[in-house]
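Continuing the batch. This is chain 6 of the set; chains 1 through 5 are on the previous pages. Same settings as before, nothing changed between runs. Recording input and output for traceability.
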Amino acid sequence: MTDYELIATYTDVSSNLFMLFTIYYSVIFAFILAAYFVAQQLKPVVSLLLAGLFIVTMALAMYQQSLLVFSMVALGMKIKSVILNGNTDLAWHAYRSVPDFLSMIIPWTFTAANLVAYVGALYVFNLCRRGDLGVK
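Output for chain 6:
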């Protein structure tokens, strides 16, 4: 890969990751708000349908985000190795200063945070549905 291809791919992956990340947390926030205001009034079938749709859609989004963050870190490590081997104009790239141990734990931390938000939203929905939380 040329320097340009590396940077262009890294930029595309990071832009897509940010976009998906923003959508993911917007949907989680909307789901929690909807649960707070209307979950208790929903019929059981509608609640199951809504929760099922949320589970499937957000699981796929979380999976895609995990793939993108692992790809972005792999590209960053590739950029770092190209910089360390010299013969490149990429010495300006910020990834050159990211320690390797951070490159290893960032994707797992990111995935864990998404999983906590995902399970938390379902937990809040369940609390609202039972009447322990939300508008009565």
